[in-house]
Write a structure and sequence with these properties.
The chain has two domains: 71 residues, DNA polymerase, domain 1; 310 residues, Alpha-Beta Barrel (TIM Barrel), CATH 3.20.20. The longest helix has 19 residues. The strands form three sheets. Strands 3-4-5-6-9-10-11-12-13-14 form a ten-stranded mixed sheet. By secondary structure, it is an alpha/beta fold. It is 37% helix and 17% strand. The radius of gyration is 22 Å and the shape is elongated. The structure holds iron/sulfur cluster. Iron/sulfur cluster binds next to α5. The site of iron/sulfur cluster has 12 residues, from α5. Pfam families: Radical_SAM (PF04055), RlmN_N (PF21016). It is found in: Cytoplasm.
């Protein structure tokens, strides 16, 4: 399994190449440097990404001479696991070590006909959205390709191990969908994110369809265009506001790329996207962005003449955290808001939250990582707030329409 932690540090000190950092074309080039034919790269890639192999000796159809070469120059190193919790509803959350005191979260959400993995692309985040606990933690660093794809690698084979499913293409695939919605703004870590996406889509790696891989952005307009050119996958946009004044306060990036520009970029993206709609995520904040008027403004925004954006809305009940000073809209308000959008013919869902008991609900995890004692502090604080505001403070209550 993962060559993480101490071994990984030793490997890095010895200038070994982490093969998880390489996309298919780069692996072909790497094999070329070793004097090997391109088909060797495909074999190697299948061993790594389809069989979860981290030991070159296990790669029995590679010539012994190649295995020996690889053993002295390369390694396969995913981030090592700090903690691994499974919720009563089956949601499984890993906290993985990305070095220098940083850790990120990876969450698996099983559903009837699919298994979705939510992965992180940065340690912390510089965008600093007001309702997001990751943003409050600040930005630490960009993840490398191996740390991004390594989350999928680790999760797929950990899940198989737990269920007794054999590795390799014959074993039932556990992860059918990937969403880049964990820590970080993926488009601000563009190259490693795109390289990881290419591996997710490659038939000799995970072979996921573009429609089953979703990148979520807070709206980095030029990079949305670049993604359309380099690796168009399904796109979700963290919208959270119906006008610029409101969005400037909630998603500071809006000051740089205001709504008109963002909507135009979404429209352009759809010409290349594997799906014919954009998903807009909208965090429901009591008294801030949840009025009937806000809903009507949203309809006007996505329907304005000349820049109509075919879309779906995903309303997200806010996960309160003490420092935010924000509250979650109540269920009746969320439903009423959804109804206005649906009456206008816009497909609208309300996110069912998962994994509350393991703190894996969206935006819950930041701050947990750098110093584990902060978890205790947060829990203590949360207990205080629950005493003050009722036992549901900080918990998500499932809402259905
Ligand atoms: S919502 Fe996304 S972009 Fe905004 S601070 Fe959180 S992780 Fe960053």
């Amino acid at each position: 399994m993962a060559a993480g932690g101490k071994y990984q540090r030793i490997a890095m000190m010895n200038n070994l190449t982490n093969l998880l950092d390489l996309d298919p074309a780069q692996l072909v080039a790497y094999c070329g440097e070793l004097g090997e034919k391109p088909f060797r790269a495909k074999q190697l890639q299948r061993w790594i990404h389809q069989f979860g192999a981290a030991d070159f000796n296990a790669m029995t159809d590679l010539a012994k001479s190649l295995r020996d070469k690889l053993a002295t120059r390369a390694y396969i190193g995913a981030p090592s696991i700090i903690s691994d919790h499974t919720s009563a509803d089956g949601t499984r959350k890993w906290l993985v070590d990305v070095g220098q005191g940083n850790a990120v979260e990876t969450v698996f959400i099983p559903e009837e006909n699919r298994g979705t993995l939510c992965i992180s692309t940065q340690a912390g985040c510089a965008v600093n959205c007001r309702f997001c606990s990751t943003g409050k933690q600040g930005f630490s660093r960009n993840l490398a390709v191996g740390e991004i794809i390594g989350q999928l690698w680790m999760a797929e084979f950990e899940l198989r191990k737990t269920k007794g499913v054999e590795p390799g293409p014959k074993g039932e695939r556990q992860i059918t969908n990937v969403v880049m919605m964990g820590m970080g703004e993926p488009l601000l870590n563009f190259e490693p994110t795109v390289t990881a996406l290419k591996l997710m889509l490659d038939d000799n790696a995970y072979g996921l369809s573009r429609r089953r891989v979703t990148l979520s952005t807070s709206g980095v307009v030029p990079m949305i265009d670049k993604l359309a050119q380099e690796c168009p996958v399904a796109l979700a946009v963290s919208l959270h506001a119906s006008n610029d004044a409101l969005r400037d306060g909630l998603v500071p990036l809006n000051k740089k790329y205001p709504l008109a520009e963002l909507m135009a970029a979404c429209k352009r993206y759809l010409e290349f996207a594997p799906r014919d709609f954009i998903t807009f995520e909208y965090c429901m904040l009591d008294g801030v962005n949840d009025s009937d008027e806000n809903a009507r403004e949203l309809i006007a925004l996505v329907r304005s003449k000349g820049r109509e954006v075919p879309c779906k809305f995903n309303l997200i009940p806010f996960n309160p955290f003490p420092e935010s000073g924000l509250r979650r809209s109540d269920n009746a308000r969320i439903k009423a808001f959804a109804q206005i959008l649906m009456d206008a013919g816009i497909v609208t869902t309300i996110r069912k939250t998962r994994g509350d008991d393991i703190d894996a609900a969206c935006g819950q995890l930041a701050g947990e990582v750098q110093d584990r004692t902060r978890v205790q502090e947060r829990m203590k604080k949360m207990a205080e707030y629950q005493k003050k505001f009722g036992k549901n403070f900080g918990r998500i209550v499932e809402v259905s329409t």
